[in-house]
Specification:
Blueprint (H helix, E strand, L loop, with lengths): L1 E3 H11 L4 E4 L6 H10 L5 E4 L3 H15 L3 E5 L3 H4 L2 H10 L3 E7 L15 H5 L5 E4 L6 H13 L5 E7 H5 L1 E3 L19 H13 L3 E5 L1 H6 L2 H11 L3 E3 L14 E4 L6 H9 L2 E5 L5 H4 L10 E6 L13 E4 L2 H15 L3 H6 L1 H13 L13 H12 L4 E4 L3 H9 L8 E2 L10 H11 L5 E6 L10 H6 L5 E6 L4 H10 L15 H8 L2 E5 L2 H13 L4 E6 L23
Length: 566
């Protein structure tokens, strides 16, 4: 029996195990929404957001929290173009999404029809792949390919553009069971000779550091990483995207490295003789001045994306493979050949140096201040959630304080825009995580600037009764830009003062959420407790020290050893 393209689309999503779709309707996708309600109402949880950018960020948050691809459905023209920031965010951070956009009927494409946009052309630079479906006969196969491409190899967003007449046309529904993409075959298994070369370097290292990135979380390699670190006695530094891939409370954890990393992490990397980089891409926020990065270290680089290896930093042992496979094989080889007690004994001086760096410069802030310090708020959130919450962040100072002061012991518990640095990401990402895990505490740590970029989604959490908590570190500034203006631009705060922000408590109430405010240290714990106990959405507005800055800080173009500490 022949069915419409709209029916084929939804049947295909069922076949892929999709249970949640984030999106916004419109004329070009009206047939899909009609069929969804009439025939598939019990098959999908559809989350109607209030802006298409939020739909993609919510699907992204869902994907980061679950490890499954996030799915988004929007209409043509502005519906599609509103997804671009979300697609670019996911692309930079290697997040698997499948985004379906409506398109005008195929005879009208290229005629500047109402709500027409060349979304395939527009998104080509910020998607892993994209499709314009030209015929209903291609639809099922394209959807199968889209999901496979999104989740395999280095994951990323895939866009599928759906002309309206294709959704109305009919064809037999046959969903493929196999694919044969001859030009796309990611390398999963590590090359054994390279693993053995890496193991040899590991056995002789006296000042080793593991540099772990988001690829460890993506591949599910956190257990293998911990096994290797504990077996070899190697300290572990993490990127922003890697936080949670190794327990933040573990004695071998160095915390985050890079521009706002810990002193011990940056000094350890700078003085290392071996750097094992896993699932990381030597981003400029990590390396600082590349010619000074880990100058005395042999470098092993494990990454599933061959284009990421040797791109920014020359490495001694490149290993193109899935992080979990590579680490498992490395552990196996090391167990056979052994990292002897004598070898571990060699690391005593190294661990003593790291302890000295830790004691010399700990993360700190003025605890005697009468005004609320934002670091104190994050510490209290960590303490009162016992480190068990899913934390989303916006971008800027709030993001860095969350990374520094909330210790992530588990993977997929930090949702943050790393590569693109997208303000407005955190709140809708928190929505996606809350939809995926309705019983978990989900908190968006936000700035008063970032939160306003997608604050309309308060209507979404109120409508679906999603108990997302928003903790606003309200300093009345675009804080990170202000910090740079203070440090490098003679305190000229050019257009970073945003004291005209709304009353967030009243705004929460207007949307049907709970609004709370703390203006002094004594009120912080009370507000957090009341917010966490609420069974609905909450804004917690913390009026913090206006000109507090994030330290340590590595200036642009400097070596990571040249940290500004206060």
């Amino acid at each position: 029996m022949k069915i419409t393209g709209a029916q084929i689309l939804l049947q295909s999503l069922k076949a892929e195990g999709v249970d949640t779709i984030f999106g916004y309707p419109g004329g070009a996708v009206i047939d899909i929404f009609d069929v969804m309600v009439r025939q598939f109402s019990g098959d999908f949880k559809f989350i109607l957001v209030r802006h298409e950018q939020a739909a993609v960020h919510a699907a992204d948050g869902y994907a980061r929290a679950t490890g499954r691809p996030g799915v988004c459905l929007v209409t043509s023209g502005p519906g599609g173009t509103n997804t671009v920031t979300g697609l670019a965010t996911a692309y930079m951070d290697s997040i698997p999404l499948v985004v379906f956009t409506g398109q005008v009927p195929t005879p009208l494409i290229g005629n500047d029809a109402f709500q027409e946009a060349d979304i395939v052309g527009i998104t080509r630079p910020c998607t892993k792949h994209n499709y314009l479906v030209a015929s209903v006969d291609q639809l099922a196969t394209i959807i199968k390919e889209a999901f496979y491409i999104a989740i395999s190899g280095r994951p990323g967003p895939v866009l599928v553009d759906l002309p309206k007449d294709v959704m109305q046309s009919k064809a037999e529904f046959i969903y493929p069971t196999k694919l044969n993409l001859t030009t796309y075959r990611p390398t999963i298994k590590a090359h054994i000779p390279s693993i053995k070369r890496a193991a040899e370097l590991i056995r002789h290292a006296q000042r080793p550091v593991i540099y772990a990135g988001g690829g460890v979380i993506t591949s599910g390699a956190h257990e293998e990483l911990r096994t290797l670190a504990e077996m070899a006695g190697f300290p572990v530094a993490m990127t922003l995207m890697g936080l949670g891939c190794f327990p933040g409370t573990h004695p071998l954890s160095l915390g985050m490295l890079g521009m706002h990393g810990t002193y011990r992490a940056n000094m350890a990397v700078n003085n290392s003789d071996l750097l094992l980089a896993v699932g990381a891409r030597f981003d400029d926020r990590v390396t600082g001045r590349v010619e000074d990065f880990a100058p005395g270290a042999k470098i092993i680089h494990v990454d599933i994306d061959p284009t990421s290896i040797q791109k920014n930093i020359a490495v001694d042992v490149p290993i193109v493979a899935d992080a979990r496979d590579a680490l498992a094989r490395l552990v196996e080889v090391l167990k056979k050949t052994g990292r002897s007690v004598k070898s571990k004994e060699m690391l005593k001086n190294w661990h003593a140096s790291i302890t000295a760096w830790r004691n010399e410069q700990r993360l700190r802030f003025d605890r005697t201040s009468e005004t609320i310090k934002p670091q104190y708020v994050v510490e209290k959130l960590y303490e009162m959630t016992q480190g068990q919450a899913i934390i989303a962040t916006e971008v800027g100072q709030n993001q860095m304080w969350a990374a520094q002061y909330y210790l992530f012991d588990h993977p997929r518990t930090l949702l943050s825009s790393g590569g693109l640095g997208t303000m407005g990401y955190g709140f809708p990402a928190a929505i996606g995580a809350q939809v995926a895990f309705p019983g978990k505490t989900v908190i968006d740590i936000a700035g008063d600037g970032s939160i306003q970029m997608n604050i309309q989604e308060l209507a979404t959490v109120a409508h679906y009764k999603l108990p997302v908590k928003i903790a606003i570190l309200n300093n009345g500034y675009l804080g990170m830009v202000r910090q740079w203006q203070e440090r490098f631009y003679d305190n000229v705060y050019a257009h970073t003062d945003i004291m005209a922000s709304p009353d967030f408590v009243k705004l929460a109430e207007a949307y049907g959420a709970l609004g709370l405010r703390a203006k002094s240290n004594s009120e912080v714990e009370t507000v957090i407790r009341e917010g966490l106990q609420s069974d609905g959405p909450v804004i917690m507005d913390f009026v913090v020290e206006r000109e507090e800055s994030v330290y340590p800080m590595v200036p642009a173009g400097a070596s990571i050893k040249d940290m500004i500490l206060v």
